Amino acid sequence: MKKPLLFMLTVCLSFTARAQEEDLSLLNYYQYYGDQSNALYKEMVDEASAKLQQRAEHVAKLKTEKAWKERQAEVRAKLKDIVGPFPEKTPLNPRVTETVVKDGVKVEKLVYESQPGFYVTAGLFMPENLKSKAPAIIYCSGHTATGFRSETYQQKILNLVRKGFIVLAFDPLGQGERMQYPEENSEESRIGGSTNEHGYAGAQCFISGSSLAKYMIWDGIRAIDYLLTRPEVDPQRIGMTGRSGGGTQTAYIAAFDNRIYAAAPEAYITSLDILFKTEGPQDAEQNFMHFVDQGLDLADLLEVRAPKPGMIISTSRDYFSIAGARRAYHEVQQAYDALGKSVNISMSEDDSVHASTQKNREAMYAFFQKHLQNPGDANDEEVGMFSLEELQVTSTGQVATALDSKNVFDLNREESQKKKAEIEQHREAFQPEKVKQDAQILSGYEAPEAAKEVHFAGQYQRDGYKVQKYLMIGDDHVTPYLLFVPDEGKSNQVVLYFHPEGKAAQSGAGGDIEALVKQGLTVLSADVLGSGELGSGYLKGDAYIEGVSYNQWFASIQVNKSIVARQAADMVRMVKQLQQDNNEVEISAIARSTLAPALLHAATFEPAIKKIALVEPLSSYASLVEHEFYNPAWIPASVAGSMDAYDLADLAATLAPRKLLIINPQNQMGEAVSPSLFEEEWSFVRNAYPNKNNFVVVYPNAQEGLATQMKDWLK
């Protein structure tokens, strides 16, 4: 039988004089729910799987050429919308810095601008004694610090040149000579390896409503532009290949630019459903905004360019699942069959880990020899490698120091500043309902249902109050929470308390919660998704920056439902349950640090939260994209695309005239923001409050503790 949330307020249990050691956890008791530390990610994967299943069922029904062409048009439109408009094409200003020759291979080391002041380093590899126009292949490097200079990639590049191909290999962002965050006077990155460089910059792009993929696709498109300026190249015979991260680039650049005739992505194509259930989402550039939500999978990147020649190259023990690769291949085959070009799609598979194998290399050579009309021996030969020094393009080995190149942050900030100006312009005629609507759409917030069940799991008697343990059971996950009930006080006034470390944080003697309870208030402290016993769980992937999983946040972007929205829904679910038990209840809410944005969203969507206190909250999402460096802890608390319509201050303004208390606001680094800057950014919030006493900001020089600061606010 379901028990009311506050039914234990009048229950008194006798305790022995012997002090008991308190255990405030619940899932060690409810062992059936012991896997809930991964509830956040599982919830996202379940949603992704449902959407991908719907997509698979739809694609399976496509049998005719007409149906597939309609699907291709639909996918092209979705990809265009997801990635957004590309910049205008500007002069490449190419410059060959040096030419080196070895073993019959001539390499022109070159640099060009894919956007003004944004430099790309590359090598143009050609047969030394080329006599006529030749087919050309763009080689995309995977995640290696040295870019195309890696011996693994040189093995393929030099073999292709020996077989009569011209190869243009360029450094991806964050790799080779295009490090985005180089240490001063060092070859090391301030952020970490290439994966972290991608994640760190990519997060800022997502918040701005853009993506790192957009910049990398554009780099590839401009590489094609440069290649076609070369008189040695036959423009009708252009191919593209690359492994791992290079396979990613190959797949999406070829999907966007039809000048690529033959494409062979290696160690990338799989099924997202299986990827999400194994390694999880990968680098920032491998995640498109709302890709899964739009009913897309990686196979679409090949199907959209059918019937042009394509090859999937895979290994059986890769973390890009071979089962997913086979599934994708069989689906892509359907498109080619319907379009009458079955011979143009193939798959090479070898038994290995995430690695380049001789069998797969030779299959790739043969693929391009066939489709780019350059027949010859497909055997993989031993080649003489160029040294890193021989292939260094710039004087310092980095475009940042040699050419004072812009980085992705610079380009993204320029776009973000335009969007911030639009947000500020809208504030002049502020429309609260429009902000609520935009926030709900962009965050992916869905109003929660009340819990199915609430289980009481025991209590501890403390000096003057009880600590009661509850487990709320919902359709998707459980929510453990604690209820701190004063022996004497107002039972109809409840303060919700949310801490990033979970319900037990600040619950001990002398903590924030006890101080509130000592004032006669009932306090409910809950674990929302991603906190406490519902912590982020274990998710594989390389993009962990200062302990923060970017990959999990990327998953939320793919399914178009933010972590913030999920946490806000948990908060609102607590409100609904309180109201169900007592429709006279007065609800206030406090959130600390990285949970403050979630509470702002929750209060925006739920008017029953009458008083809101944010302790050490982020001052703005804009601060994360306006500054080159930021504290990664803020990323899961951010909403991708929010800069297209609103910032945190806009949410705050929708709360007027409800009481809002801000204590020690923080900047993008997690440090106290200057009062003058905060007052400037939030001045329009003050104007939104007719009663100035209802909006209070307390800066860090205040001497009072949290409970004292909120004493008047809670009246």
Question: What would you say this structure looks like, in words?
Answer:
This protein is 34% helix and 19% strand. The protein has 715 residues and is an alpha/beta fold. Strands 1-2-3-5-4-6-7-8-9 form a nine-stranded mixed sheet, sandwiched between helices. A nine-stranded mixed sheet has the order 10-11-12-14-13-17-18-19-20. Helix 1 packs parallel to helix 15 and helix 16 crosses helix 17 (596-605). The longest helix is centred in the N-terminal third of the chain and has 22 residues, at 39-60. The two termini are 36 Å apart.
Extract low-pLDDT stretches.
Answer: 1-19
Radius of gyration: 29 Å
Number of helices: 22
The count of DSSP E runs of length 2 or more, i.e. the number of strands, is: 20
Q: Average pLDDT value?
A: 92
Biggest sheet record: 9 strands, mixed
Shape: elongated
Helix content: 25-40%
Which class do the helix and strand fractions yield? alpha/beta
Q: What would a concise description of this structure say?
A:
This protein is of the alpha/beta class. Helix content is 34%, strand content 19%.
List the helices and strands and how they pair.
Elements: H1 39-60, H2 65-83, E1 95-102, E2 105-115, E3 118-127, E4 134-140, H3 151-162, E5 166-170, H4 194-207, H5 212-227, E6 233-243, H6 245-256, E7 262-266, H7 272-277, H8 299-303, E8 310-315, H9 322-338, E9 345-350, H10 358-371, H11 399-402, H12 408-427, H13 432-443, E10 453-462, E11 465-473, E12 478-486, E13 493-498, H14 512-517, E14 522-526, E15 544-545, E16 548-549, H15 550-558, H16 563-581, E17 586-592, H17 596-605, E18 609-615, H18 622-626, H19 648-654, E19 659-663, H20 675-681, H21 683-688, E20 695-698, H22 706-709
Parallel strand pairs: 4-5, 4-6, 6-7, 7-8, 8-9, 13-14, 13-17, 17-18, 18-19, 19-20
Antiparallel strand pairs: 1-2, 2-3, 3-5, 10-11, 11-12, 12-14, 15-16
Helix pairs in contact: 1-15, 5-6, 13-19, 16-17, 17-19
